[in-house]
Amino acid sequence: MSGATLYSVSYALSSALLDGLGSILPGPARAVVTNPNVLVGLAVLIFAVILLAASMLNTILLIWWERKLLGRFMDRRGAMHVGFAGLLQNFADGLKLFRKNTFQPTEADALGFYGGPLAYMVTSMILFGVLPISSGWNSGVLPLTLLLALAIFSFAPLFIFVSAWSSNNKYSLMGGMRSAAQMIAYEVPILLAVVAVVIVSGSFDLTTIVYEQQNYWFWGPLVVALIVFVAGMLAEMERIPFDLPEAEAELVEGWNTEYGGMLFAFFMLADYLRALVGSILVVLLFLGGWTLPTWVPSALTSFPLAGIFWFMIKTYTVFGLFVWVRASLPRVRTDQLLRVGWNRMIPLSLLSIFLAAVLVTVKCLPVFGCLPSMGV
Amino acid sequence: MWINMGPQHPMTHGLWNLRVKIDGEMILDVDPEMGYLHRGIEKISEDRHYNEVITLMDRCCYVAGFAWEHLYILSAEEALGVHPPERAEYLRVLCEEFQRIGSHLMWYAAFVQDLGLMSPFLYGMRDRDLVLDLFQSYTGARMTYEYMRVGGVRNDLPPGFSDQARKVLDWLDARFPEYDQLCLGSTIFRRRCDDLGVLKARDCVAHGVTGPMLRSAGMKRDLRKDRPYSAYDRLEFDVAVAEAADVTARYLVRMEEMRQSVRILRQVVDWLDHHPGPVLADHLPRWLGAPYAPIGNEGYLLKRNYPKGVGLSAIEEPHGEALAYVVNDGGEHPYRVKFRSPVFANISASRQYLVGYHVADIPPIMGSVDVCVGEVDR
Could you count the other beta carbons within 10 Å of the beta carbon of residue B261? Predict the structure, then answer.
């Protein structure tokens, strides 16, 4: 596992493909196929396709996981009939949505109405490509992955608001307004909580942040930051108790009221993709990413794809906690949400920055141990 | 900006329209519109035999069918001068109290769903199913029962019913603390529901608001105590009252009512165990006693000679105080049937308890009113 990265795999795949193609093609065409630029281009394309397939598969698996878990919390079974334990139910649902007619309300703004969900979907997908899943599964060494991920993450209110406004529906508009207000309010504490992690790890690169957690995972010393980050993520994902933009009780379906068929599926997929990314970020920043503590026997970490395996276990556990919250809490009100965001979350995140600064100064903690060498 | 919440809207729990004038998230004015589910039940009743009207009563309120059957039967019996046997009265109380629990559980499920609580919704529905199972065991139906008859009830309980009923009551008793924990134990719930949708006792009286809403405002009024009907004067129970007049108070009242219903039902089941007897009065004319049997000429002759009379009954329905007025002109059909729906009055007062709150407060407030549109429009 250590040697093979996602890119090297797709490069090998690409060259094997082109070699095979070159051996059967006549002279001039062979020259085109063996051109190194074509080779790299195809490698990048394969890389992207793998990422896309992985993100979609994970999203659909996540929806299944949520349905099953929610079912258990509610004293029922969840999806059961299509595939083993309902695993294929979401594919069936997706196919159904795919076949549905897409309609547009009269006087809806076509550009915003169709462009909004598309942009929302695309930005969410890019997000998945930025994040490292294991030592091999990443998009190369970027010094500012964390910043990039959060920047793309914060595009969402814009696209949601655009699609809500252009739907020409009062419920959509109210949902869009709420969504924008909520996401902007919770963007700030999230960023501040992340600053605490950055201070301790000394890097904006997610891979470095993960390796800085070799002695102890950050959730222990940075528990305040973790709380702020998780609460903020719940708001960013628009999940109960913070799902007021699509509070179905009063706003029908909030900002995506007017969307049906595949456009609705886009929103749904993008929502869960963002939920997945949120869980991944929690794992990366606070739960040691794909690494396990050093006292774990090496047999558990040395099998092929062990990094991805443990990473996914952690991610789905974190998402399970989000589902648990959803199953047991009522929805808050807009003004309460914003008050909590501005009055509680921001002071808490400032406190977490202070604690992180203290941690960096003392370098070693009695229970947890010492920081590894600072990445700066 | 005026928005139409309804007639197709998740908040309505039925088919009505709440027009809301909003400024941002604040409610400036509301205007409830009803009538989307009007089926002319009162008028149709004038064209049905006395026992055939019962079928319509089940459709009046689909979650509290027994209560409306009971209401109609009481006034029809008064109008016709028929007296049911005592066992039938206890059976009716059994039906009504189980129905109260079923209706309140349905309310609980819908109400918490309005607040975004997902699991308790299914817990409420799950436990309501046990009550429906009981109904099915002795009426054969889970929703539209057609069980009560002028002069009694259709049939007696099946063997083993009382054991099953006690099991359900024990189960429910154990569930109520869980419900409270999920709602009252949650800070978010208290923040959302305290001081919300306040309707003081004076306003309740002014708008004819009755039932749990009135009792949540501190007014101890319950027709089962104040104007006992059927066997209620022989049963022990307390009237659930709360003081705060807000959504939480209505929650508390309904929860306490369910507990009291369980208490009543234990007494009723015990009584039924020890007092076997007829469940249908034996002095009825054939066309009343056996409604779906072929009616001979004899029956038609009898009905013409039925004594004239007027019946007025009032019962404490799960949603509030319902009234029925039946005029008997000696013919085979009631001359006139008129109902008072408690929910109609409760919704009509919505301007009093909605204006000034947030849009997000509409679902919990209207949820705490417990709307059943079937009986509003009839």
Answer: 24
> Tokens for A70?
């929610």
One CATH from 3.60.21.10, 1.10.645.10, 3.90.180.10, 2.60.120.200 for B44-377: 1.10.645.10
Q: Which of A73, A241, A248 sits opposite B10 (nearest CB)?
A: A248
Q: Which residues of B touch A251 (CB under 8 A)?
A: 359
- The structure's pTM equals 0.84
The number of beta carbons lying within 10 Å of the beta carbon of residue A61 is 16
Q: Please tell me the least confidently modeled range out of A141-145, A245-249, B211-215.
A: A245-249
**Residue A344, both tokens:** 């509680």
- Give the list of residues 6+ apart from residue B113 with CB closer than 8 angstroms, or none: A249, B121
**Gap between the Cα atoms of B46 and B60, Å rounded:** 15
Quote the minimal CA–CA distance from B11 to chain A in Å: 5
Q: From the CA atom positions of chain A, what is the Rg in Å?
A: 22
B192 CA to chain A: closest CA distance, Å? Answer: 7
- Report the residue from B115, B122, B188 with minimal CB separation from A74: B122
Q: Which residues in chain A are contacts of B9 at CB distance < 8 A?
A: 252
Q: Are the Cβ atoms of B25 and A335 closer than 8 angstroms?
A: yes
One-letter amino acid at A235 equals A
Q: Confidence class of residue A25 from pLDDT cuts 50, 70 and 90?
A: confident
pLDDT > 70: what percent of chain B? 93
Q: Three-state DSSP class for A135?
A: coil
